[in-house]
Design goal:
- The chain is α/β, with parallel strands linked by helices.
- Helix content is about 40%, strand content about 15%.
- The strands form 4 sheets. Strands 1-2-5-8-9-10-11-14 form an 8-stranded parallel barrel, surrounded by 5 helices. A two-stranded antiparallel sheet has the order 3-4.
- β10, α12 and β11 form a beta-alpha-beta unit.
């Protein structure tokens, strides 16, 4: 497509306001608009097939409506930042496996369906607190995720390159392809997922979860004895979501659905707006208000009730359950003080949002060796605080959003089979925020399941 066609796209009156954001403040964007390849990349992305389909997006919104009504629970997990190199069959299946294992435990604990969503197949761009990074007196642009620049600390690698969006698209496509075949091809059979969990509880460090695992086993045997249709349980729905940070990319993958004549951002099922880019009059809120996808917004500890209510007015003017998810990330020390006012404010507005806890981003610390980490106990404490607040206000604690991996990494401190700082030197792999490893992820699922059972 030539430049002229891109201009036409921007001024087309039937564009559903999809380009209004171009006139607004857009934080955290790459500086690539003058790059010689920028226009051709945008036109390539405009003509590539959608990664997800409008019908799937609608189905996910209806699943999230069940969460908003308190009849289902949402589990969202994956890397802080995906990388191109780690989009391998082993790593992707490890992550999906862990997510499915967590979901089985949560389904049993909550006695409810669990909506499963990977932070994957598109999580390639990152907001940063500083534009520049300094190492040994050398200053270069910060790493912003592999869809923007490279992690390697050289001038060439840190330059913002729009061609990386095309690579991001294709890597998302192959990740999604594998995710679809894993979850529909028999890999997700409930009975095998349960068997994998037995491996976890056989570790003496996790013996306190053995009885819950036994209960799940018995429930499965009971279902089998009753003649439950296990063929139907061989497949599962898995949705994907990412932070919709790069507006050039999100806009280029937005398509008008021929059935409904409405715009869908086909880069993923669920798109969220980060804590740093949720300005009420800014570009991200404006753009994502125009698409039909279910939308998340991260809410940090300084969020005011007025901001939350204005976000509802802008992103969910029809008050449609499932449309809007608030992902709170207050920090363990603040959640009990800061969340209640938001929940009460939203309750009095009559809106039905999905409330999710992200117990990771408010609990990040740096250790003297320079690594960014999180203490498992702080993560658990924020989850507890989230449940306590919702319980006391009669609202539904709808879900859990975690940065996790299926690998045996050492990035977060603690857990029953504890990770300590010495392990970071050899087993810290994240290019961005620290993730729960496989065992820590399962442990948090077992703890939340125990909690849900007691409700
Ligand atoms: C993230 O989810 O990786 C992130 C940057 O979160 P937040 O916007 O909540 O800081
Ligand atoms: Mn993160």
């Amino acid at each position: 497509m030539s430049n002229m066609n891109v201009d036409q796209l921007q001024t087309n009156p039937s564009d559903h306001g999809l380009d209004e954001w171009r006139e607004l403040k857009a934080d955290q964007q790459p500086n690539w608009s003058e790059h010689p390849d920028f226009q051709s990349v945008i036109s390539d992305l405009n003509s590539l097939p959608p990664l997800v389909f409008a019908g799937e997006v609608d189905r996910m919104r209806s699943r999230l409506a069940e969460v908003a009504e308190g009849r289902a629970f949402l589990l969202q997990g994956g890397d802080c930042a995906e990388t191109f190199a780690d989009a391998t069959a082993d790593k992707i299946s490890g992550r999906i496996k862990t997510l499915l294992q967590m979901a089985v435990v949560l389904t049993y604990g909550a006695s409810m369906p669990v909506v499963k969503m990977g932070r994957m197949a598109g999580q390639f761009s990152k907001p940063r607190s500083s534009n520049m990074e300094k190492r040994d007196g050398v200053e270069l642009p910060s790493f912003r995720g592999e869809m923007v620049n490279g992690f390697e600390f050289t001038e060439a690698s840190r330059a913002h390159d729009p061609n990386r969006m095309v690579k991001g698209y294709h890597t998302s496509a192959s990740t999604l392809n594998l995710a679809r075949s894993f979850t529909t091809g028999g890999f997700a059979d409930l009975r095998s997922v349960n068997q994998w969990n037995r491996g976890f509880t056989q570790n003496p460090a996790h013996s306190r979860y053995e009885s819950l695992a036994n209960d799940i086993d018995r429930a499965l045997k009971f279902m089998e004895a009753c003649g439950a249709d296990f063929d139907a349980l061989k497949t599962t729905e898995l949705y994907v979501g990412h932070e919709g940070l790069l507006l050039d990319y999100e806009r280029a993958l937005t398509r008008i659905d021929s059935r409904t004549n409405l715009p869908y951002d086909t880069s993923g099922h669920f798109i969220w707006i980060g804590e740093r880019t949720r300005g009420l009059e800014d570009a991200h809120v404006n753009f994502l208000s125009k698409v039909r996808n279910p939308i998340g917004v991260k809410l940090g500890p300084t969020t005011t009730v007025d901001e939350a209510l204005t976000l509802i007015d802008k992103l969910d003017p029809q008050r449609e359950p499932g449309r809007l998810t608030f992902i709170t990330r207050m920090g363990a020390e603040k959640i009990r003080d800061n969340l209640p006012a938001l929940v009460e404010g939203v309750q009095s507005s009559g809106a039905k949002v999905v409330w999710v806890t992200d117990p990771m981003h408010g609990n990040t610390i740096s250790v003297p060796s320079g690594f960014k980490t999180r203490r498992f106990n702080d993560v658990i404490d924020e989850v507890r605080g989230f449940f306590e607040v919702h319980e006391s206000l009669g609202s539904f604690p709808g879900g859990l959003h975690v940065e996790m991996t299926g690998d045996d990494v050492a990035e977060c401190l603690g857990g029953s089979d504890p990770i300590n700082e010495e392990a970071f030197a050899d087993h810290y792999e994240s290019l961005c925020d620290p993730r729960l490893n496989h065992r820590q992820s399962l442990e948090i699922a077992f703890m939340v399941a125990e909690y849900l059972q007691r409700r």
